[in-house]
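Quick one: structure for this chain?
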Amino acid sequence: MSGKRHTSADEPYFLIRSLRQTLPEGFEIHPHAHDWHQLIHASAGIMTVSADKGRWVVPPQWAIWAPAGVRHAVQFTGASEFATVYLRPGDWDVLPVTSTVVAVSPLLRALILRACETGMLDRRDPVHAAAALLLVDCLRAQPARALGLPMPSSADLKRVADACSKAKGDRGLQFVAARAGLSLRTLERRFSAETGMTLGQWRRHAR
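Got it. Here's what it folds into:
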């Protein structure tokens, strides 16, 4: 069925949709959400993905899982090959319910690229259905979290985190606190409560 021209009547039969694009240095995908789950992957280049309360710097050996309805944004470093798949919610009960890092094995990478070549994986096609099932089985493996960076939940501390991650120099924590209108003690206490890390630890990990 891969050679068939799909219409809106086929939509209920799609298990997986896909998208592949070549993107230039510095390209940004602004915050948005999807009705379908998304596996965000770049087969070449580096992505910085923000979703939920986390931020990840993601090389091609990794991908980010963003469940349906979760707002996320992506920035690309270097010329990138964006290869992503979308999975219909409700078809699978074994997928992660929060955003997380996923290791991209050679098999998972091949399945992602194959899905992108096909365009849609249609449950009426036995080969498509088998490929979708195998791809989902790859996602069930325990994800690696080493690339994760927890983000604070409050708006003012998110601004602090964004400023720290984009800063070129090495401003002291006292300066950061003053810019935020907080005492250093209050900033450190709140930042630790919201991220589980001190601000100093968070800045080092971000860099």
